[in-house]
Amino acid sequence: MRLRNVLREAGSRDDIVERVREFERQYGGEVRGERDERKTNYRDFVIEYYDLATDLYEFGWGQSFNFAGRRSGESFAAALARSERFLASRLELKPGMVVADFGCGIGGPMREIARVSGAKIVGINSSPYQIRRAEELSQVSGVAHLLEFLECDFMNVDAPDGSFDAVFSIQSIACAPDVARVYAEAFRVLKSGGCFAAYEYSLTDQFDAEDAGHQRIKADLEFGGGLPDIPRQREIDAALRQVGFELLEARDLTAEALYDIPWYQPLVGSRLSLTGFRRSALGRKLTNALLWLMEWARIVPRGTARCAALLNLSADAHANAGEIGIFTPEYFVFARKPSSSDGPTGSAGPQGQ
Predict the structure, then answer these.
(1) What is the pLDDT of residues 296-315, one digit of tens each?
(2) Angle, alpha carbons 259-287-298 (nearest 5°)
(3) What angle separates helix 42-61 from helix 128-139, to the nearest 10 degrees?
(4) How far apart are the first and last CA of the chain?
(5) Can you spell out the DSSP letters for 1-30?
(6) What is the pLDDT of residues 263-277, one digit of tens each?
(7) Which of 297, 292, 266, 294 is nearest to 280 (CA)?
């Protein structure tokens, strides 16, 4: 994706600078906005954030807005695809199944999962702009016949009970102010005996709520990443059980030494490629400087560089949180909706990627 194509509706989006300023005024500042306000107005908060950030994410990160640890010799793109395919394998997806992707972004992961599984994937997203972009990209993906999109809040899914054979989510449920309500919707729309799998944003046990530095990093993650709040891992487990799921597996992949290259490495260093350099700290700074020049030349609308600075804040916070171990985007959970015919339940042991 070429840099001049970011914010591709520039001609009709001259209010970007004002929208960024209003976002910063309402949710930023020294206290990074009041958490209650982010939760009360979370849908507006998240939609506004992704309206501003989506094109820059796509330019810098690609079509899958997620993180994954890497093995030695594995490319960034290959690591993301492997992590996505793992969900398809764990859920045992196959042709004829109908599956929901809660928080599908612009559809990168669901396209990969549809491609490898042959299952029909329904992407659920509350951002009209991301839905439009996902539909555009899907038309040239070769798997458009397996994809559908549903524009709705994943705390209130516009689908009947028992609509889906499986549900997955990739690092998106932290966008909701109440993870239990999202899990309750996943439980409701699943068929009896169906399974849910997700990679979740979470705070680790190393996060200290009394540590001012930890609190500042968390606030930057939430403000810069469009997140109302980031849950602890035990809160995720409790929420899944609370709504009725049988929690079969819950594990922090970053704590298992599965990978040679940590998930946050692209944010702190380059792997000697153009796309890798874009994601690095230096690459982001140079991109931001170029955006200021492009604004001055009226190639992109005013406010684009200011929006990029917001994403840089998020990137730096992700890197800092990952390096000191207080946060992970790779908390893997696998749960099952009990069937009425179930006997005594057991538990499944962990399976590596």
Answers:
(1) 676 666 666 767 777 788 88
(2) 150
(3) 30
(4) 30
(5) --GGGSSTTGGG-TTHHHHHHHHHHHH-TT
(6) 998 888 655 444 555
(7) 266
